[in-house]
Specification:
83 residues, mainly alpha, two-stranded antiparallel ribbon, 3 helices, 5% strand
Length: 83
């Protein structure tokens, strides 16, 4: 009875699949060359070009305190309405 090396067959299958994926990725990059130029996470705009994600500016300590006061006031009014 012949002994089957499952790990060998699994490795061969994985190598074949990796080659397929590499070929598919090469086709995608040929069709959409702008994808390769992007780095990190970027959104694609309506025109198809890559656009940078919008990021919020960090809040200063004074802005954080103002938000804190405003939200405490808001939640106090919500509790008062429920009671």
């Amino acid at each position: 009875m012949a002994k089957f090396d499952v790990n060998r067959y699994a490795r061969l299958g994985a190598e074949a699949r990796a080659a397929e994926l590499s070929a598919e990725l090469a086709e995608i990059y040929r069709a959409f060359p702008g994808l390769r130029a992007r780095s990190g996470r970027a959104a694609v705009g309506a025109e198809g070009g890559a656009t940078a994600l919008r990021r919020r500016k960090p809040m200063t300590a004074a802005q954080k305190k103002a938000v804190s006061i405003r939200m405490k006031k808001y939640w106090a009014s919500r509790r008062k309405e429920k009671a």
